[in-house]
Records
---
Amino acid sequence: MAIYELSVNQRTHSVDVDPDMPVLWVLRDVLGLTGTKFGCGKGLCGACTVLFNGHAVRSCSLPVAAVQNGELITIEEVDKISQYQTQAIPIKQAWIEHKVPQCGYCQPGQIMSAVALLKNNDKLDRKQIIQQMSGNICRCGTYQRIEKAILSVAKGASDDE
Amino acid sequence: MRHFKINHEEIKNGTVGRSVKHESASAQVTGKAIYIDDRHQTSQILHGYPVMASVSSGTIESIDTSEALKIPAVSCILSADDIPGQNDVGPVFKGDILLAENEIFYHGQPVLLVVASSYEAARKAARKVVIKYRQTPPLLDIKMSIANQDWVRPPHSLKKGDVDTALANAANRLEGEIAIGGQEHFYLEGQVSIAEPTEEGGIFVHCSTQNPTEIQHLVAKVLKRPFNFVTVEMRRMGGGFGGKETQAAPWACLAALAADKTQQIVKIRLARSDDFRITGKRHPFYNKYEIGFTDTGIIQAADIQINGNCGYSADLSDAIVDRALFHANNAYYYPAARILGNRCRSNTVSHTAFRGFGGPQGMLTAEQIMDDIAYYCDIEPLQVRLKNLLRPGMDETPYGQKTSQFVMADMLQKLADDANYYQRKSEIAKFNQSSPIIKKGIAITPVQFGISFTVQHLNQAGALVNVYTDGSVHVNHGGTEMGQGLNTKIAQIVAQVFGIDYEQVLVNATRTDKVPNTSPTAASSGTDLNGMAALNAANTIKRRLFDYLEKTYHVDHTSIMASKNEVHFGEQKIPFSKLVEQAYLNRISLSATGYYATPEIYYDRATASGHPFFYYAHGCAVSEVEIDCLTGESTVTRTDILHDVGHSINPAIDKGQIEGAFIQGMGWLTTEDLIWHQDGQLASASPANYKIPAIGDTPAIFNLSLYDSENPETTVFRSKAVGEPPFMLAISVWCAIRHALASLTQQRFVPALNAPATPEAILTAVIEANNWNKKQGCNRD
């Protein structure tokens, strides 16, 4: 066990855990942030996606020791943090408007990937969305709506310019 | 109020028929929607993990738990001897063993349960248990099961007319076969249960299950307690798809067993790879047929053998293979038929319910038959399908039920027109002539899916509606929410009855102490059954309120109408909340239960005939694909769907079900390949080697329309079930791949294609087509 200072949603938390404990379990079991989901434990399904220094990462296979000097953002607060609000507020809204979620379990991860995608790309087309979102699987098959929701936000953003 | 007609005027102002958002949408996008594993994230609870057998068949010689018990976090290790009641969690028939006693039936079968203060310690300890086995050769080949007549349940067959004579007299005869792969559910939320001891000595269970009542019963039987000592709650699942109809039970029962022993809260959550290995899947099938047909492609006789690989126990296989039989004619008329269904045993996990419940495996065979006839007779496949549809006068299925709603021909023709089927087909033929490697294909296929549980007594449901004195409404019902939008639709139905806003109605967790003796949320029946029960409950309260108005204000019942949060009577109106308050002060009960049982359905096993389905849901899809003849890769480039959901209660939710079901079906038929090692261990046990569709697999062009048609049967607001039927729309993809393959032989021969049509399967078919071409060349020489 070791003590780690973690920045989660712009608050610092001190946690006493094993260095190889995946960030997912630190978030869920230690900090009680259960919005981030366990899907496969191998970084292959995307249900556990969070933002680390602005990039979408799989928290189930990322050891806590690797995220000490960076900033973690989770589904609970992503729309309340200034540098992501521009993407996160409309994307959550688009998810509701396009009626994306069915069972909803993969959706926190989908939304976090979508926020990173929009944050890091000014203009988006289907090809880019497919490329960036392929690591987030949805067994309910809501992909068509995910694509539409992301495109609607991307279009809205470019309309503003 | 079972026989209501839709009042279009009322509906216009009401909430039924509107695409209101899913009741959980806001919670789902903020991470606030609670799933089972999100409860009790504390170090104060215990975790259970199974010790799994490392052989597929044999007996246990010795068990050594000493190393596992040395781990300080381990509190106990439980075996079959610790079970006070029954060690069997079979849903219908006995044979699903909770913890192995001596004999091992499949690789990964739970033998013991480790209980520890952390999840990691429980898993680690489970791996430290040493079990020695006396191995016996496992049965893993379905053809061997058939040869040995090794069944988990007796065969059952449908018979219509004199098949042998009809075959003998048929103008043309063809034989065929197909191996159809199973499918892993891969619900994103894996199996998970939490059990908590209660002060009465009972157990409270949170379980991700489609069948809370069955969990209640099985936990009680395992613990040897009366049913009323066990309560099960289920708010939402992170996906079910049939995989939590019976497969949730072992983990709930084991968690309850451990909670009962330790008198602490116990959680069991399976790791993904173990969830793959030790929970049942869609049944793999091996089907064979001989068909007789006219020169014009009309079926005269069908002799079909359906073989479901059931795994080691019966589970739900009897009903699943039955449904495969019931759908082996899909939407077609077989004048004479013999359809035999075998329930084959093997040393694998017990295969189970999965969206479609055997229907897809029967229906795929019917569509293969249609294509076989089309290529043999050199008739356009859609024409063969249209000619063979069930139609007036030729309306009887092989199980004696007569089809009464004939919409399939209209739907197929409409879709063919809307999707430009014929024109695209000729363009594809042109393209293929000049494209030696990439071949395109297109196919249009129908779906006619019977709605009702084939086990008759399951076709019942209950609901509890409570109206509070401020006019807000709380509803419980027997169904479970797994993403299909059931709770949303039920809230809409109840809101419609009271003429209030949808937001005034809250539907949340399913609980066995609120609505008892419920059926699983399965067979697409969630809304049909529970929606009608909720409607009946709401109508009971509505009637009391209207009676009160009638007596108090001396108005006639017929002049009272509830709409837009107000109740109008005579020339007056009153807000719904005020009426409710008045009713309370006048001592009128504002709570009611509702009940519903599907009418008209029966099936006589002895004669293999009856009316097992209340009605049929219809749909059709046209898919276009590209295959690469060098790599075997396939891509679905466009899909157009026309689907019949009756009068839709919520079009956005229904369309979501159709889109998702198609994608899931496409995965089943193209990329999802279950592979078992020779020793019976599942090799494809993680997303690394089991490929379900991702966003890039969605057809680039994907059009969907709802067919404008009310259900002729008296279902809730004349809607139709939607969960399963659209899964089989994906058969159009498989048929389109066959069409692309047939282009290799200028449509003169279509090679066999097993399902799923993986790159390997497609390459095998390409080789078969090329060999056929060579042989034709040789013959010409």
---
Amino acid sequence: MKVTLERGALLKSLSHVHRVVERRNTIPILSNVLLQAKDGALLLRATDLDLEITESVAADVGQAGATTLPAHTLYDIVRKLPEGGQVSLETAGDSGQLLLRSGRSRFNLQSLPESDFPDLTAADLTHRFSLPAADLKKLIDKTQFAISTEETRYYLNGIFMHTTEVDGHMMLRAVATDGHRLARVELPAPAGAAGMPGVIVPRKAVAEVQKLIEDLSAEVVVEMSTTKARFTFGPVVLTSKLIDGTFPDYTRVIPVGNDKRLTVDCAPFAAAVDRVSTISSERGRAVKLALSEGKLTLSVTNPDSGSATEELEVDYDAAPIDIGFNARYLLDITSQLDSDTALFKLADPGSPTVIQDRDGAAALYVLMPMRV
Amino acid sequence: MTPALPALCRDCLTPAASGQRRCKACGSPRLLAHAEMNELQLAHIDCDAFYAAVEKRDDPSLRDKAVIIGGGKRGVVSTCCYIARINGVRSAMPMFKALDLCPDAVVILPDMAKYGAVGRQVRAMMHDLTPLVEPLSIDEAFLDLSGTERLHGASPAVTLARFAKCVETEVGISVSVGLSYCKFLAKMASDLDKPRGFAVIGRAEAMAVLEPKSVGAIWGVGKVAEERLRQDGYVTIGDLQRADQTDLFRRYGAEGGRLWRLARGLDDRTVEPEREAKSASAETTFDADISDPETLTRSLFLLSEKVSARLKKGEIAGRTVALKLKTHDFRLRTRARALPQPTQLAVRIFEAARELLNKEAKGERFRLIGVGVSDLCEAADADHGDLVDTRAARDKATEAAVDSLRAKFGGAAVMKGIAFGPPRKPR
């Protein structure tokens, strides 16, 4: 293999693919990035066996061929090379050595054969649709924080994506929950999405997709089967295994009869929650919301350090209620809302509360109360 | 002439004079004399060869025989009587070795329920002396007798001697008492004069008593730490007494400071009654090594029920479930998993432990299996369920119903199918 390309182009591609490679690997080949030169392009690919990112970049191919190199080392080398230069990669016979040259720098790198590199390529992706990158970003941004990290309920370790009909319109939904909070966002389903299997995209894939969205106006092609999903961003292709499990029937936990409606101004509300929660030492300490007509009193009591209260004027005219929430969860949700106000629909201190921008908003959040 | 020390006859509890060899009132030679006897308040009480003593009490024919309490077909000596000890038998010794040393010994399987009852009886008697009782195990405890002189109309030393006598007559076993001014030395003292002992270590002689002892005698210094200290030139506690405090601190950190203080008999830990449990667990050693996943799973279920019962009784719950396995070649393996939320339910403990077991039970033979729950909290915080876990309330109600049936009709009244072994093979 002999190939020459711009340092900047190589660095950009490497920065996309090398993140997939775990820093510590028990299987040596998984530390490497696959390099494949042919037809005027260099293809780079990295995988952790669950997730694979492939990118193709224009290159001057002197001799077609393929090899694999340690991904992080290669990335670090290319990163440190001077800007604007050309990088040439050349395998040296059967020695397993690869010579990297740029300007006056020369690196001899130990490679591993291309044939050892695992192939995750999905054969039969049954559904295919495309949507604006901005839409995909919205689906992820607004649900990602609620993804669970607990290993017992592994089927919560991702975003559940599926299509469903709402009032005669086919919608594409993203849902994530860790049991304490649930986030649901929906968009009109793009053509071709209808009938796709409900899939759980794992947390790591979600995070990589999010990072790969650079141009919000571009289109992203999404392909799915029951076991794999693929996202194509121009020259970059991310393929991920899906979580093999059943996402719980989340529709049952979204309350519909909550009749106590509270409207708050998001920014002052979040600032007040943040202020009073300063007093709580432990993570996850509850903040109490005491509601009466037109008035919300936020309070936190920490037996070790003291207490804090703050009053807010709010739009509320139902019966008085005291309810506790995890302060951090409240802040996570309010920071995801698009409008200046947040609508809380409450039932009682022991039941989940619904939080939205307004009735019928695309994003809906459910929050479990805490004992206070 | 040396001034007369306060002294006491441990049999008839009459004050004595320190020079006497026998009590003038009853003729007993068991006289206790010590300068600080009437000032020291902190005691450590330890039952002598507890399990063996209980067995001898219940079967007087064993009185003159060597008795070893230990487990089944294999296993180790858990307690042995003083006759067996003369032959070199020690607790934790493998049974075959003990029987080599002492072939005439009578081996008795432990009856934990019985020992527990006797232990509680002794504990209750301790509580009659002071509320400040800190149990260390079933048969030993620290007692702080400060401020009880007026209540008992006697100094702590007299009260303790009376207590020891009382345990002998009412319970039928003997105890050893250590009396000092701190926990460390009280525990050391109770060991000095065993069995049926009463030893006092006062402030005046604390340094001297400690000086010749091995560093291993210091509380918290185990085999590994002892070896490290030995290599650094600290063989006796005296070596630590002579060491520079800063030096010890530099070498061993905070632990060095602790060693320096304990070596000088400085120990300001107080007696803490009712130490809060940090975990609840149960384990079982098999008669023969087991690799069959089904059998292991069944054991795990029964142990989970046991742990759950303990949690429920204590009105606590835990967030972490741990599985403990010992392989046939004595390697210990523990695996733990954090739960989404705290639980005290057997079914949930079992589910988490079973998942851990499934990853381990792959044909290897195990001699021991155990399950534990830690990271404890109040029961009120447990098993509420969440947005996804909609089963919690039902699981909780089911177990509550089973528990109430068991309370009424006994433990075997309701059992899950998994608790039964495979059907017996027809002959």
